[in-house]
Amino acid sequence: MKLATIKNGKRDGQLVVVSCDLRHCLPVPGIAPTLQAALDDWEAAAPQLQRAYEALNAGAGTDAQPFDEAACHSPLPRAYQWADGSAYINHVELVRKARNAEVPASFYTDPLMYQGGSDSFVGPRDAIYALSEEWGIDLEAEVAVITGDVPMGATPETAAGAIRLVMLVNDVSLRNLIPNELAKGFGFFQSKPASAFSPVAVTPDELGAHWQDNKVRLPLRVDLNGKPFGRPNAGEDMTFSFAQLVAHAARTRELAAGTIVGSGTVSNKQGSLHGSSVENGGVGYCCLAEVRMYETIEGGAPKTPFLKFGDTVRIEMHDDAGRSIFGAIDQTVRHYEEKAR
Amino acid sequence: MKLATIKNGKRDGQLVVVSCDLRHCLPVPGIAPTLQAALDDWEAAAPQLQRAYEALNAGAGTDAQPFDEAACHSPLPRAYQWADGSAYINHVELVRKARNAEVPASFYTDPLMYQGGSDSFVGPRDAIYALSEEWGIDLEAEVAVITGDVPMGATPETAAGAIRLVMLVNDVSLRNLIPNELAKGFGFFQSKPASAFSPVAVTPDELGAHWQDNKVRLPLRVDLNGKPFGRPNAGEDMTFSFAQLVAHAARTRELAAGTIVGSGTVSNKQGSLHGSSVENGGVGYCCLAEVRMYETIEGGAPKTPFLKFGDTVRIEMHDDAGRSIFGAIDQTVRHYEEKAR
C-alpha cells in the first residue's frame, strides 16, 4: 500500500491512503489520524489500511479525493529517529580518493551511520531554506525505510522483518561546514539541516521484484534545474542492505516504531569524470559533492558550484512502466528570510 | 511549575502536574494528555498548567494523587530531538590531557554538540540495559533543557526565551565503543544508547536565583552504589550557557518544540586525583571516565572499572533546604536478556 501525510495545519498532518497510480487519496481517521499513530500500533492498523488501499484502487467508496503531491508533508513530518547510513561505498571511495586517502578495510564490513535531526522535516515541495549560499548547500538523493520496533542486538533477519515502509530522501548537506564540524570529532550537526522525504511512503511489497535482498533495485532519478543529473540504480553497489543498516542501528539499543533509516547518497561505480555524467552516457550523481570529487581527482580542484538560491532539485523513482512510485521531491533553494517574511 | 509523565501503558504516558514538594500530582487530561502535546501548544497550555500547579500546591481540589517517582517515565518518554552539548570544557581538557593532546582554541568559543537518539528514552527508575559489560558502560550526569520552537539563526537571547523546562539526565555512554566509532568520523551512534531523564521537569522560575545566566547554579548529586561520587556545581565552569547551546543547535535549522538540549557531563576544575574525590574533600565526578582520566594522567593507566551488571547510579539535585527538585534518577545496570525474559 501507499501512504502519505496531507498538511492540515497541525504538526503531524493527516494520514491518507494513496492509490497506486497516485491519482486519488483517502483520509482514514477511523484507522489512524497520523502515520506515527499507525506505526505505533501497526499490527492493528496495517490490515485496515491495506483494505482501504485496495478499495481505493478498485474505485470503491465515495470519500476519495484527488491526490496532490504539493499538499503533502513528508510522510513523517517529524520523527523520533532519523539514522542515516552511508551504504554506497563508492561514494566514500571517491571522497577518500579526492584527498589521497585510503578507505579503511573496516568500512566494507562496518557501516558508516550518523544520527540526524528529526524534529522538523521539510515537505517534499517546500523550499530548502538557508541563511547563506556560503554554507555550500548540496543535495543528497537517497532511499530510506521506516521501521517498527526493533529489539537491541537484532540480527539482519529480524531487522528485515521490522521494515514497514520505503521512501525517498533529500538529505540536504552544508558541505562547507562539514570539514570543521567533523574535525571536532562529534559528527555532523550544523552541517545537516532538515531533510525532505518523498510525498508517498510505500510498503516493500509495492516494489514487487524490485525489492530484493532488502534493497530497491531501480534507478533513482535526480534532476537539477530541470536537467537530468543522476540516474544510478539504488540496488547496485549498495554494500549494506537496509536489513544490515537497521541491525547496525540496533546493536546497542532498541529502536522504536517510526525510526527512519537512510541509505546514504546513492552512488554507482563508474569510470571517469567525462563518462560518469548523464549527458555522456553515465548514470550521473546524487549529490554535487560527487561530481566535484571527480573534478578534483582528474583536475586537482572542483569546478561545479554548490546550490545557489533559486536552484531546483527533483528526486523521483519510476516503475518499469515509467510511473512515479513515491511521487517527486521537488524543492527550490531559498533564503530563510523569505520564510520569515 | 513541575511536570512529570506517569507510565500508563502508552508510548507517551500521561502528563501530570507535580506539587513543589514532589508529594502529590494531578493528571491534567483537560489541558494536555502528554508533555509533548503541552509543548506543541505551550502558549495555551502553560497558563492552565500553572493554575493547576498553584491549586495543587495550595491543597485545593480532590483529584490529587500521591506522586510516585518510580511510576514515572522520562518527562518526554520519546522526543523529536536530543542534542547533547559538552559545555564543561574541564571534561574535554582532562580527556585531551590523558592522551597528551591540546584542546583546540576553537573549543572555547564553538560548542561541541552531538545528535543523540531520542526514539525511546529509559525511565528514571528503569534499568540501564546492555548486552555486554565489555562495552564499557558509563554514566554521564548532566542537566538538560526542553525548548519550544526556535527559528534558524536564533541569537542566544532568542534561544533563552525558548527554554521551557529544565531536568537532569543520565546520558549512558559505552566507552569501549567510542574510540572506533569516533575514528570513523561520523560521531557517536552505537556508543550512545538510550538516556534516562529525571522524574520531574521544572520551569526555570522554580530554580529561583539558582537559574542564573541560563545555567543551574546548584550541585549535582551523583551516587554510585550508594556512595557519594560527584557533587560538582552545575553552574560553575560551564563554558557555554544553555542559551548558547540552543543557539548553536539552531544555527542552520529551526528547532521544533520538544527539542532537548543537554549540557554534557558536569565537571568542575579540580587539582589532582587524590583531592578531586568526594571522600577527600573534592567535588568528585559525573562519569567514571573522568576519574579514569585523572588516573591515566597521574599513573599512566586507568584503574577504576566501568559499570558492572548490578551496579547502581543515582542522580539528583537539592534546593537550599535539602529537598529534591527534580526527583532522582536511580538506575541499576542489567543484562538485556533480563528484559527479554
UniProtKB/TrEMBL annotation, chains A, B:
Domain Fumarylacetoacetase N-terminal: 1-78
Key word Hydrolase present: yes
InterPro entries for this protein: FAA_hydro_N, Fumarylacetoacetase-like_C, Fumarylacetoacetase_C_sf
Residue ranges annotated for the Fumarylacetoacetase-like C-terminal domain, each copy included: 82-333
UniProt xrefs under Pfam families: FAA_hydro_N_2, FAA_hydrolase
Keyword Secreted: no
Keywords, comma-separated and alphabetical: Hydrolase
Annotated GO MF terms: hydrolase activity
Stated name of the protein: 2-keto-4-pentenoate hydratase
